[in-house]
């Protein structure tokens, strides 16, 4: 039954078995992968929840750190940053919260944490508002502090100036209590310690009581008004302190009871959720590992069974196919070797092997027919080889002729001994081509050789067509044109010699006139130089007088500066005397204040009793020294005022002398200005004469230069005449036909006569007008 199966049916059957095994293997793998995919999806969901809860933990931690930083410095940008972090918190992102929708416990817990986060934000907002209130009240306290200090200083200064020692002492006690109040207030704002607040209240009450006692003993309305202002400001300060204390206490309560509670609680709740997620991830990992192990084992067993079955089928089918194909290959090799008489097997089989045997039978039949056709082709190939040999011989001869022509030898020819008329015609055509090229090149070479020997009478006379006809016409045209140019060049050379002679005659006449003009200019230059020397002497003398006048003016100016310095020194002495007088007055005031302080010290020493006796003696001595200093300063002040009066008198006398000297200085200055103007005028005359002398000298140099130029022109003209003669000798070498020479004479006749006429007119114009010859004449020439 199996022997009737075709190759395709046997292969299809084997692969069908393998496909069934692969399908079973795929189903097992699909089941295992599906189980792993479910575990992976669950694990991925837990991982996403873990990432989300991690972002929530980080957002909460960042918000808490900013809130802690705000507690330290109270910066407004940190409050804005806190609100921004709460707004962007992952807990406020519904998409992030929906990740926990399948976990009802965590989802419910996140809802509660979201409400706690809002409460945490409200608590921070309240704390920030109280902090801003604290800053505002603190600024008001600072302003009130400066006001209280200023009022106390004004009060103590007023009491001191009136000499009320008792009131000054009471004011000092008020000042001490107020300073203690301000100091403890600063401590309370820094530490928030209730003990410091109690001290502030206690010192404030003491200060108010002392101000009231001081006000009772004062009768001056101004001082009473100042004490009342101090009392009012102390009350204001006390009210601000209470407001500050209220804000600080409420802020600290909010921080302790709400911020310090909600922040850690929210973060701890996130930690619990995160731990639950980690536990579920561990369980899912273990389950997925077991499923992967089972799937791997099943797949390995089924894969091994499929490999064994596939290997058995491959061996059975492979051996059958290999045996049949080796036999078929042996038959093909025998046919390829030319054995067309062998007997083919399996011709009657109905499978693919039978079809292949039948195809080989067709090849064998066709091979026998091809053997007969090969014999006929061999005879035809021999005839074509003989004809190709003749063509190769002709090609070799044509190549030899062409190579000789390329080398410049046009005498070689192709033989005409072939039996084929076509080959004979081709050989004759090549020979005719080489002959035509030989004749054209030879005649053209003869004409060029004649041109090289100065013979312009040779021409190309042969009959040609196409490119050789154009070569003939171009060569003859070149010879004709060259002959005409030689004729024209002869006539032009003769005309150039004639014009050069006329120019040389005019140039000699111009040289004589230029020499006479140079002699006249030399005499004029000598006369002008003598006049310039005389004017220069006058200018030098005027300049010396101006210099002496300038020196006198400088001496007068120096005298004026000395008087001015003396006047300034007197003014400085007067200013210094006034300053010394002011200093003496200040010393007198200091002595008075020292006397007053000594008096206060004596009062305090008296109040101190026995302990202050020694200090009282020192105070008395200080008071005596202060009185002595005041008397001495009065005497010095009187002497300084007398000296200042005498200095004013001297300063007035110096000012009068300075005004007289200034008048003298103005007169000397005017005289110096006049002398400078005279010197300048003489110098301008001298400069003008020097410019005239220079111009005349330059004209003399130009005239001499023109004379030299005329001599050079004469030499150049003579050289040009010699070169024209040489050109005649060169042109006479060429031989041209009579017709070409007549044509050359007729063409340039008018040009030569025009050239001679313009040369004559230019020479006459130069001789009659000298250097003023028109530029147009020379450009036309």
Automatic annotation (TrEMBL):
Primary site of residence: membrane
Its Gene Ontology molecular function terms? transmembrane signaling receptor activity
Q: Which PANTHER family match?
A: METHYL-ACCEPTING CHEMOTAXIS PROTEIN I-RELATED, PROTEIN ICFG
Q: Where is the HBM domain?
A: 45-285
- Please name the InterPro entries in this protein's record: HAMP_dom, HBM, MCP_chemotaxis, MCPsignal_dom
Q: Which domain of life is it from?
A: Bacteria
Q: Which residues cross the membrane?
A: 297-318
Q: Does the keyword Membrane apply?
A: yes
CC annotations in GO:
plasma membrane
| Gene Ontology biological process terms from the UniProt entry | chemotaxis; signal transduction
Q: Where is this protein localized, as stated in its record?
A: Membrane
Name the Pfam families on file.
Answer: HAMP (PF00672), HAMP_2 (PF18947), MCPsignal (PF00015)
| Family from the record | Belongs to the methyl-accepting chemotaxis (MCP) protein family.
Per the UniProt record, the lineage of the source organism begins with: Bacteria, Pseudomonadati, Pseudomonadota, Alphaproteobacteria, Hyphomicrobiales
SUPFAM superfamilies documented for this protein:
HAMP domain-like, Methyl-accepting chemotaxis protein (MCP) signaling domain
Q: Where is the HAMP domain?
A: 319-372, 435-487
Quote the protein name from its UniProt record: Methyl-accepting chemotaxis protein
Query: What is the species listed in this Swiss-Prot or TrEMBL entry?
Result: Paradevosia shaoguanensis
């Amino acid at each position: 039954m199996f022997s009737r199966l075709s190759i395709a049916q046997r292969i299809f059957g084997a692969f069908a078995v393998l496909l069934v095994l692969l399908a079973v293997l795929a189903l097992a793998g699909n089941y295992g992968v599906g189980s792993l995919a479910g575990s992976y999806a669950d694990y991925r969901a837990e991982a996403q929840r873990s990432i989300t809860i991690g972002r929530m933990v980080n957002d909460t931690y960042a918000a808490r750190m900013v809130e802690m930083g705000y507690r330290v410095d109270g910066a407004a940008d940190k409050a804005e940053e806190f609100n921004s972090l709460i707004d962007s918190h992952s807990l406020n992102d519904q998409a992030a919260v929906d990740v926990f929708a399948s976990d009802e416990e965590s989802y419910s817990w996140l809802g509660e944490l979201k409400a706690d986060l809002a409460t945490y934000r409200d608590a921070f907002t309240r704390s920030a508002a109280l902090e801003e209130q604290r800053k505002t009240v603190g600024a008001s306290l600072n302003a009130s502090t400066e006001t209280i200090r200023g009022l106390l200083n004004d009060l103590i200064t007023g009491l001191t100036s009136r000499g009320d020692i008792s009131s000054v002492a009471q004011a000092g006690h008020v000042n001490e209590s107020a300073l203690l109040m301000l100091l403890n207030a600063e401590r309370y704002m820094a530490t928030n310690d209730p003990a410091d607040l109690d001290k502030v209240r206690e010192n404030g009450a003491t200060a108010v009581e002392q101000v009231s006692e001081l006000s009772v003993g004062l009768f001056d309305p101004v001082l009473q008004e100042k004490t009342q202002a101090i009392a009012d400001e102390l009350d204001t300060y006390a009210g601000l302190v209470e407001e500050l204390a209220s804000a600080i206490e409420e802020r600290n309560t909010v921080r302790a009871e709400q911020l310090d509670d909600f922040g850690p609680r929210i973060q701890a709740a996130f930690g619990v959720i995160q731990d639950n997620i980690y536990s579920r991830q561990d369980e899912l990992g273990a389950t997925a590992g077991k499923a992967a192990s089972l799937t791997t084992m099943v797949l390995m067993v089924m894969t091994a069974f499929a490999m064994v079955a596939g290997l058995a089928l491959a061996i059975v089918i492979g051996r059958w196919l290999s045996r049949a194909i080796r036999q078929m290959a042996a038959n093909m090799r025998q046919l390829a070797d030319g054995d067309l008489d062998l007997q083919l097997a399996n011709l009657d089989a109905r499978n693919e092997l039978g079809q292949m045997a039948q195809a080989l039978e067709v090849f064998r039949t066709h091979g026998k027919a091809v053997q007969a056709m090969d014999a006929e082709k061999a005879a035809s190939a021999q005839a074509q080889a003989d004809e190709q040999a003749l063509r190769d011989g002709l090609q070799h001869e044509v190549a030899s002729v062409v190579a000789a022509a390329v080398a410049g030898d046009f005498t070689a020819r192709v033989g005409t001994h072939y039996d084929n008329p076509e080959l004979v015609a081709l050989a004759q055509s090549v020979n005719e081509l080489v002959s035509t090229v030989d004749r054209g090149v030879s005649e053209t070479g003869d004409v060029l050789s004649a041109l090289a020997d100065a013979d312009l009478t040779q021409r190309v006379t042969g009959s040609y067509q196409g490119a050789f006809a154009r070569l003939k016409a171009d060569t003859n045209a070149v010879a004709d044109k060259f002959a005409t140019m030689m004729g024209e060049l002869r006539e032009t050379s003769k005309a150039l010699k004639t014009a050069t002679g006329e120019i040389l005659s005019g140039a000699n006449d111009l040289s004589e006139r230029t020499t006479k003009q140079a002699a006249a200019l030399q005499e004029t230059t000598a006369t002008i130089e003598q006049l310039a020397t005389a004017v220069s002497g006058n200018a030098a003398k005027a300049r010396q007088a101006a210099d002496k006048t300038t020196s006198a003016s400088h001496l007068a100016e120096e005298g004026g500066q000395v008087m001015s310095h003396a006047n300034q020194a007197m003014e400085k002495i007067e200013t210094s005397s006034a300053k010394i007088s002011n200093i003496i007055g200040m010393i007198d005031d200091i002595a008075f204040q020292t006397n007053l302080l000594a008096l206060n010290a004596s009062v305090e020493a008296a109040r101190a009793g026995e302990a202050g006796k020694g200090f009282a003696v020192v105070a008395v001595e200080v008071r005596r020294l202060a009185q002595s200093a005041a008397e001495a300063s009065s005497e010095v002040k009187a002497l300084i005022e007398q000296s200042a009066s005498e200095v004013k008198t001297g300063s007035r006398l110096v000012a009068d002398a300075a005004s007289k000297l200034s008048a003298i200085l103005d007169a000397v200055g005017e005289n110096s200005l006049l002398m400078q103007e005279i010197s300048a005028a003489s110098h301008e005359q001298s400069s003008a004469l020097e410019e005239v002398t220079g111009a005349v000298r330059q004209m003399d140099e130009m005239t001499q230069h023109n004379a030299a130029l005329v001599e050079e022109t004469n030499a150049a003209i003579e050289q040009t005449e010699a070169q024209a003669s040489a050109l005649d000798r060169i042109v006479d070498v060429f031989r041209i036909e009579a017709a070409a020479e007549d044509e050359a004479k007729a063409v340039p006749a008018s040009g030569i006569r025009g050239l001679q006429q313009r040369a004559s007119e230019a020479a006459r114009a130069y001789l009659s007008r000298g250097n003023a010859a028109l530029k147009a004449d020379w450009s036309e020439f």
